[in-house]
Write a structure and sequence with these properties.
Elements: E1 2-7, H1 12-27, E2 31-35, H2 36-42, E3 52-55, H3 58-61, E4 67-72, H4 74-84, E5 91-95, H5 110-118, E6 123-134, E7 144-145, E8 148-153, E9 160-166, E10 169-176, E11 178-182, H6 190-193, E12 205-211, E13 221-224, E14 229-234, E15 239-244, E16 247-252, E17 256-270, H7 276-284
Parallel strand pairs: 1-2, 1-4, 2-3, 4-5
Antiparallel strand pairs: 6-7, 6-17, 8-11, 8-15, 9-10, 9-14, 11-12, 12-13, 14-17, 15-16
């Protein structure tokens, strides 16, 4: 079995867990592919004890990788999207970061999780992505995101003014610091911090969430992910900052943005004892009495 390892960085505390992971995969006779910048960072910190194949692009992985492990937090998982793209390679998130909604396997769960994965005892949970159709080519080939599209003002002296249309039907003009169009996966990220609702991964919806809206009666709204959402810019801001997850581009206020569901999904590995609701309870401490 060929297993890819992707990471951005690893703390001194996380090194021992990374070593455990590599040793476990070696004992299972797996062939390791490691993201080259990550490999260069860890080469002198852990004992690989086997030959590894470096990779750098999605072309290196396509048809050459059975499973891909994201080593870090949710930010690392977002970075993996550019490598997986539409290849369908299943992804497992191993959390050596902080909160970890996507990277749900904790440090202490690594070894039993690998046993389950090697045995094929897991399910694939498909996660919807959002695609920026216009302006065409703004983000090159990477015109999609797992969490959200964000649109924020660059001038702090005035509000963003954004007209939103859903399937060519006028929804609202938002006066705010910005606007988010989030997937169910992104509903527990930026959108949640702006008081957006939590949406289960299989709900087939998007949520349109204003950022610090000027009108307090304006609230996030959930729409079907089959919708085509158009954003028209106006107001005093000459430029806006457009984001797809953690990637950003500046556009002028004459641009019109069109977003829709991407034509492919991310296959996220879910182990038998893990599911979306379990992760919510664990990460948000639901049902926990912090007074005790």
């Amino acid at each position: 079995m060929k297993i890819g390892l992707f990471g951005k960085n690893v703390t001194d505390k996380g090194i021992q867990y990374l070593q455990q992971l590599v040793d476990k995969l070696k004992r299972a006779h797996c062939t390791l592919l490691v993201y080259e910048p990550f490999l260069n960072q860890i080469r002198n910190k852990i004992t690989l004890a086997c030959e590894v194949e470096p990779f750098n692009t999605h072309a290196d992985l396509r048809n050459n990788c059975d499973l891909l492990f994201s080593i870090g937090g949710d930010g690392t998982m977002l970075g993996i999207i550019s490598l997986v793209r539409d290849s369908g390679i299943p992804v497992l998130g191993i959390n050596l970061g902080r909160l970890g909604f996507l990277s749900s396997i904790s440090r202490d769960e690594i070894l039993p999780a690998i046993d389950e994965v090697i045995a094929g005892n897991y399910q694939l949970e498909q996660r919807t992505l959002i695609s920026l159709e216009r302006p065409e080519g703004l983000f090159g080939e990477m015109n999609f995101a797992l969490n959200e599209l964000s649109l924020t003002k660059t001038d702090n002296t005035s509000l963003a003014v954004i007209e939103v249309f859903v399937d060519n039907k006028f929804l609202n003009t938002y006066w705010a610091d910005g606007l988010l169009v989030a997937t169910p996966t992104g509903s527990t990220a930026y959108s949640l911090s702006c008081y957006g609702p939590i949406i289960s991964p299989d709900s087939e919806n998007f949520v349109i969430t204003p950022i610090a809206t000027h009108n307090l009666t304006v609230r996030p709204i959930v729409v079907p992910d089959s919708s085509v959402i158009t954003l028209k810019l106006s107001g005093r801001n000459k430029q806006y900052l457009t984001g797809l997850d953690s990637r950003y581009k500046t556009i002028s206020n004459t641009e019109e943005l069109v977003v829709k569901r991407a034509g492919f999904r991310l296959n996220l590995i879910q182990l038998p004892n893990k599911d979306f609701f379990t992760t919510l309870r664990e990460k948000l401490l639901w049902g926990k009495d912090q007074r005790n």
